[in-house]
Amino acid sequence: MNHKWAMAIDLDRCTGCGACVVACNAENNIPTVGEAEAGKARLMHWIRINRYWEGEFPEAQAIYLPMPCMQCERAPCELVCPVYATYHNEDGLNAMVYNRCIGTRYCANNCPYSVRVFNWYDYTWEKPLDEQLSPDLTVRSRGVMEKCTFCIQRIRRAKETAAEEGRAIRDGEVVPACAQTCPPGALLFGDLADPHSEISRKLQDPRRFRLMEHLGTEPRVVYLKRLKGAGQ
Amino acid sequence: MSTVIVGLFDGVETAARASRALRDLSLPAGSVTTISAVPLPEGAVVTDPQPIRFPRIVIAGWFVGAAAGLGLTLATYLLYPLVTGGKTIVSIPPTLIITYEVAMLGALLATLFGGGREMRLLRYPPKVIHDPRIHDGKIALCARVEGDEQARRAIVAMQGAGGTDVRAEKGEL
Amino acid sequence: MSGGTTPAAGNHLAGTDQAKLFTELSRGNLVTTWRWYLGVGVAGAVLLWGVIVFMYMALVGMGVTGYNKPVFWGLYEASLVFWIGLSHSGTLISAILRLTHATWRAPVLRGAEAMTAFTLMVGGIIPIIHLGRNWRVYYALPYPNSRELWPNMRSPLMWDAMAITTYLLGSLTFLYVGMIPDLALLRDKSAGWRRKFYSALSLGFRGTHAQWRRYHVASTLFAILIIPIAVSVHSIVSWDFAMAKVPGWHSTIFAPYFVVGAIFSGIAGVVIVMAVLRRAFRLGSVLTPMHFDNLGKLLCTMTLLWGYFYFTEFLTVWYNRNPEEWEVFSSYGGHYLPLFLTMIVCNFVIPFPMLCLKRVRRSIPLILIPSFSIVIGMYAERLLIVVPSLARRNDPFIWANYFPTWVEFSVMAGAAAMFVLLYMLFAKFFPIMAISDIKERLFHATDRTIGGATVESIAQVEGEEEARA
């Protein structure tokens, strides 16, 4: 049975704390690039918290928008890779194949959400930080693109366990690192192919919208609008 | 190895006069040719009876290239069917582009090899007749003859028209 | 019809000392001065430096460049478009002027065709330079491999690969076949290793009537084929951008816009190269002010055409004020103002008034000013297409500026040095003047008296049947 993995991000609950970013970095062997590189706009975060300002000081309000990879149904990044290093798999995920990538960076240019990041160097983890690296996935070499995978290693692990036990994956069994960590519970992950899953129910919420829908990318990450209170 | 009478002429006029004189010998078509540093218009001194065939090879080359491009693209799609960007596995516009480019490449290579073959290159003196003095403004008129009588008459015709260094050589035109 | 005709014996070739003409036109091949060695040495040194810096970048990572997120493409990709654009020089001069029987094309042919071939070589190397994992570039080749995967033909980069390969092979073939009669000439005039060298390269061409007829047909066919290839190549290069979901890139005008820009920069490049050749090999009697005048007129036309295309692009964005595109174009008046002004001034404001003046076009030092200006302006234009669209793209939160580092400048300087080196080597060992074409033109040229004036008359042999008396 093919899954349809999707994520719902409730902006009413998101506080912009950034715990999801930290969790993702820890789970996916993402290097910390350092202050200098961050100043050159080379952060390697797979999920980022966009912050927009609304209004002027002293009434300025911050709007937080967590942006993982949208896992678009019609992903523009997949189309332009000359070597098939990124393609759409059967679960509806935009798969990234590090070994195949030759680093043309066209996919990153074609992502309107700018969620793809590039390995500018061979990043290192000084001892003892290398002991925190997850053995479930690789450390990428220089010259290779990477991006949020919806924690595909966790999806695979759940699939293997379920296959061993001869059952289907239960709803809530697969939780990406960001969703697992989010303190206010703003991130929800699940299988849209299961009509009874929590995400299928959640995405009937009239607050739902998707980013940059006019571009026709058909993202699998759905946002739920922030409620501004009575009268607004 | 045929006998060819070669004569050097100072310009088109004298060469043309010699060519006209050679017509009395009723040599078979294509037996007389010029060797010159610049192309001479058809009929100025000699005519070339052989039609030019290789443009047909060029057209064939275009189609062969198109087939190759089409085959390459379709093979790539069908052997490795990966979904990218929600597009169909067999995507037509890129197929057209690749087919066109390889078709043009095919036509180019066909022109190169077909033309080269029909120009009968890769034959060197002394197997073929050549005179390097053509680069100093001379035109060499060559007449392939059979037998001593024809050879003698050809020499006389060329010398009478003003040819210098008229001689008999063994080689192909 | 009034006017007398002079007999064909009075053609200009008959009145030329051909041995002297040969020595004059082949000066580059026959005489080597210290200046050539110096030029080759400097170009070689810069190229070597570029190669070393490139290897440093490949070993350490692309982080040593100025690239960042979201500006993943910058100087390298802009240079790629620039160099491929310059390659349209030879195609225009050689192919189009050949097909339109422009009588003044002969001295410019070879230099322009050589420029096409070598700028294409430089442009063809840049896709390998800009990769994050250059050593794995062969993944893009379709051949049976253990990875059990072939490339994605839907990617414009694969179209690039096909198109540039075809164009490179085509322009090299065009250049080589065009040289065969001249190589035969050099063979007959040289001795020793040179004779063997030219003998092998001229493939035994002798100049028989049958050979010339077929040679003419082959040359014409090449000219007919190379023009659509050239147009398609730069259209495909433009589609690297036009196919993307980047505001400012996704525009249908890109294909003709880039082709026009390519021809524009190409002619400017030809003017510069011709001026250098004229000086270096003392070809003043063959490359006359008339040639630069004609090239200047073409350049003036292209200035107007380029200006028109750029205005059209701006007009549609300005009129629609589509927010994503408007942010990109606003940055032209903001952070990218210096680059934008450089482009407008160098591509239009300086060249157009200057090229309208005959005095400028006919003076070699003066026509070099708009030519250099255009080369600089077109480079700025390529940068202006690539960088601001990425720097100010869809999500404002990740906007960032880009500036190249010493690494990118070094590698691109090495690429330019590669062009100079290849060209200098070519001009030394191969005939840089199309001697046979020049002779052919002289052969067709006679002086004709019309009333009280004596004019030069060039015979046009349109078709075979018409020549038969």
Write the layout of secondary structure elements.
The complex is a heterotrimer of chains A (232), B (173) and C (469).
Chain A: E1 5-10, H1 19-27, H2 35-39, E2 48-54, E3 61-67, H3 76-80, E4 86-88, E5 94-96, H4 106-110, E6 117-118, E7 145-146, H5 152-164, H6 177-181, E8 187-191, H7 198-202, E9 208-209, E10 221-224
Parallel strand pairs in A: 1-10
Antiparallel strand pairs in A: 1-8, 2-3, 4-5, 6-7, 9-10
Chain B: E1 2-9, H1 12-22, E2 32-35, H2 55-79, H3 92-118, E3 139-145, H4 147-160, E4 164-171
Antiparallel strand pairs in B: 1-3, 1-4, 2-3
Chain C: H1 18-25, H2 27-30, H3 34-60, H4 75-86, H5 88-99, H6 106-129, H7 156-189, H8 193-201, H9 209-242, H10 254-280, H11 289-320, H12 323-332, H13 337-349, H14 351-356, H15 358-361, H16 364-391, H17 406-429, H18 435-444, E1 445-450, E2 453-458, H19 464-467
Antiparallel strand pairs in C: 1-2
Helix pairs in contact in C: 3-17, 4-6, 4-10, 4-16, 5-6, 5-9, 5-10, 6-7, 6-10, 6-17, 7-8, 7-9, 9-10, 10-11, 10-16, 12-16, 13-16
Overview of this structure, please?
- The complex is a heterotrimer of chains A (232), B (173) and C (469).
- With 232 residues, chain A is α+β, with helices and mostly antiparallel strands.
- Helix content of chain A is 20%, strand content 18%.
- Chain A is built from 7 helices and 10 strands.
- In chain A, strands 8-1-10-9 form a 4-stranded mixed sheet. Chain A has a two-stranded antiparallel sheet with strand order 2-3.
- In chain A, β4 (86-88) and β5 (94-96) form a beta hairpin.
- The mean pLDDT of chain A is 93.
- Chain B has 173 residues and is of the alpha+beta class.
- Chain B contains 4 helices and 4 strands, in the order βαβααβαβ.
- Chain B has helices at 12-22, 55-79, 92-118, 147-160, and strands spanning 2-9, 32-35, 139-145, 164-171.
- Chain B has a 4-stranded antiparallel sheet, with helices on one face.
- In chain B, α1 runs antiparallel to α4 (147-160) and α2 (55-79) runs antiparallel to α3.
- Chain B is rod-shaped.
- By secondary structure, chain C is an all-alpha fold.
- Chain C has a single domain, classed as Formate dehydrogenase/DMSO reductase domain (Formate dehydrogenase/DMSO reductase fold), CATH 1.20.1630.10.
- Helices cover 69% and strands 3% of the residues of chain C.
- Chain C is built from 19 helices and 2 strands.
- Chain C has helices at 18-25, 27-30, 34-60, 75-86, 88-99, 106-129, 156-189, 193-201, 209-242, 254-280, 289-320, 323-332, 337-349, 351-356, 358-361, 364-391, 406-429, 435-444, 464-467, and strands at residues 445-450, 453-458.
- In chain C, a hairpin with a 2-residue loop joins β1 and β2.
- In chain C, α6 packs across α7 and α7 runs antiparallel to α9.
- Chain C is globular, with a radius of gyration of 24 Å.
- At the A-B interface, α3 and β4 of A face loops of B.
